[in-house]
Amino acid sequence: MNRKHLADIMVKSLAAIFTDNVVAGGDYEITDNPNMNVYELDVAGMKQVRWPGVNNAMIGAVFVGEDGKVIKKFNMSVGAALFDFVNGEYVYTDVPNGAVKIVFTSPVGFDNLEAIAVDSSAVEAIEPDWVYIGGSLDNPAIRELVGVYGMTLDSLMRARSISGAVTKRGENNNTINPDWQYDNDGNLTNATVPSSTMTGSAANLINLCRMRGPGFYSIDYEMRIDIDNLVLGIIGDRDVQAVCGYGCGSGYSTGANGMNAYGNVTRRWNGGNTGNIIFGIQNYVGCNSEWQDNVAVNVPSFVEMRRQRYAEVAAFPIDAKWHIYNPLTKTERVVQGITDTNGMCVARVKHGRYCDMIASRCTTDTSKYNENYSDGHWYTAGRSRVPLRSGYSAYAHGGLADSAANNAGTYSGVSCGVRLAFRGECVFDDEAA
């Protein structure tokens, strides 16, 4: 493998390679361009190469041999409406026989990114930096646990994941309890659940999960995408309700419809709107929409939104950026989202090395959900958005990539609940010494 930061392999700044007049066996020219830079990377003996690229009919890259002559030119030019490439995202291609280097164009501003050449033709080799967020590779005792059931509340206002209870949802009383207390990291400092009126708003339900103790959350974004990507790989279909079962609607009773008898399985649908089981998790899609913790949209940071008690602060940006927080490392990454709304059908998701399930393109043709992700996308240009997952009821738009970043933490929708989860050190009985 040969990998270099662009800053270390620049040939000329504010320049580009125009490929329209380049021919094999000929020369190439570097032309001034105010928006691009030119770089080169050694690729001798390599089979694939990737770099931060551009989608342009004339600007691209060339592979050259020992004599400096062009062996092959490359440019990516895709005009399809659902193509979701953004300048600076990487492109990759095979290295032609005899090539010793690639000279390529990248947009200005990406010198901290890398160009990578690999000596394998396997597609997974071109992404050597897959990122595992869930749990910890350094400490195998750190695990992620997700509730089998949607969250319910007992008489002591404790968040539970138990059978035989009605899931807790909102009641259209859009308020956040004023007695929640936060530290500078956005963590709760309350010793007990406030005794004052507790509505089913997003912030209240998320905080009730956190009150179970350190490491407890509502299912958060990183937990959710771990499950979603595994499910997609196992069932081989983006329409998860069609394979695993239609949603049973919001406000369901946990363990109903004989679900407990199936155990830890991913069950195939056998008709009816009785819910679904995925990895033993009951009613994971199309039942309650579920608020996600450790993620927010249109904020300066997730922690700052918590510090500000989920308030829609006027100084907060409105930029459709998703702020995804890792409570183990206390770090945040940011992913640019899109502004499509009104249940537009998710056609493509970000993926990348984090396997993100954030929509990157939607189609307005909602009659073709089952030709895409069978999921809807909602967004509003308001501050401090708290994203929902799953969708509610057996609607065509409910599923793994369903996303609704259109409400703040005050929202108390009657179809919206949470799912208790845990991230931290735990030991199973059969592992105990």
Structure description:
The structure is a single chain. The chain folds into two domains: 2-126, no CATH class; 142-222 and 289-425, no CATH class. The protein is mostly beta strands and 433 residues long. The strands form eight sheets. Strands 24-23-25-27-26-19-28 form a seven-stranded mixed β-sheet. Strands 2-5-10-7-8 form a five-stranded antiparallel β-sheet, with no helix packed on it. The longest helix has 15 residues, at 221-235. The protein has four helices and 29 strands.
List the helices and strands and how they pair.
Elements: E1 2-5, E2 10-12, E3 15-17, E4 30-32, E5 36-42, E6 48-52, E7 61-64, E8 70-74, E9 90-94, E10 101-107, E11 114-118, E12 142-146, E13 152-153, E14 159-160, H1 202-210, E15 216-218, H2 221-235, H3 240-244, E16 277-278, E17 281-282, E18 286-287, E19 289-291, E20 295-297, H4 302-307, E21 321-326, E22 331-336, E23 344-351, E24 356-363, E25 376-379, E26 388-390, E27 399-405, E28 416-417, E29 420-425
Parallel strand pairs: 19-28, 25-27
Antiparallel strand pairs: 1-11, 2-5, 3-4, 5-10, 6-9, 6-11, 7-8, 7-10, 12-29, 13-14, 15-29, 16-17, 19-26, 20-21, 21-22, 23-24, 23-25, 26-27
Feature tags:
single chain; 433 residues; mainly beta; 7-stranded mixed β-sheet; 5-stranded antiparallel β-sheet; plasmid
Gross morphology: elongated
Low-confidence stretches: none
| Structural category | mainly beta
Largest sheet: 7 strands, mixed
Q: Number of helix segments?
A: 4
Per DSSP E runs of 2 or more residues, the count of β-strands stands at: 29
Spatial order of strands in the largest sheet: 24-23-25-27-26-19-28
In the residues, how many domains can be counted? 2
Beta content: 25-35%
